[in-house]
Amino acid sequence: MISSRNGWDPLAAIAVLIAVAMLVLYVVLIRQQGGHAAAWFLGGLAVAALLGIYGVAHAAPRRGLALAVSGVVLMLLGILGILSIGLPILGAGVLAVVAAARSR
To answer: Where does the sequence pass through the membrane (predicted)?
Structure first.
């Protein structure tokens, strides 16, 4: 079983890192193409990342709920963006849901 002596969850941390990396990558790709990033997509990734950051700490109250919501949002966004950047986002969502299930 993966755990940390410092009181944080590595699975949740990895999910957050992927979400933040994909947020940055999405903005960079859209700007290179001369387009405008979809605010709802950026907002969803940001909210999921923030919930994930909260859920990284084992001592956080309701961390399982935060990670579950983060995971569901990431999986939905991953499915919506599956033809471009969605696969890593979907993977981050799965990691967050697994971390939520382990948080009991």
So the answer is: 12-30, 37-60, 72-101
- Tens-digit pLDDT profile for residues 58-71: 899 999 999 999 99
What values do phi and psi take at 77, rounded to 5? Answer: -65, -35
| CA angle 25–9–48, rounded 5-degree value | 40
Q: For residue 56, give the H/E element and its range.
A: helix 39-56
18 CB-side CA count, 13 A: 24
Look at residue 2 and tell me whether its pLDDT is greater than 60. Answer: no
Taking residue 33's Cβ as centre, other Cβ atoms within 10 Å add up to: 8
Question: Which amino acid is residue 37, in one-letter code?
Answer: A
Tell me the C-alpha to C-alpha distance, in Å, between residue 59 and each of 16, 32, 51, 74, 95.
17, 41, 14, 23, 19
Reply yes or no on whether the pLDDT at 3 is more than 70. no
Distance between CA atoms of residues 77 and 19, nearest Å = 10
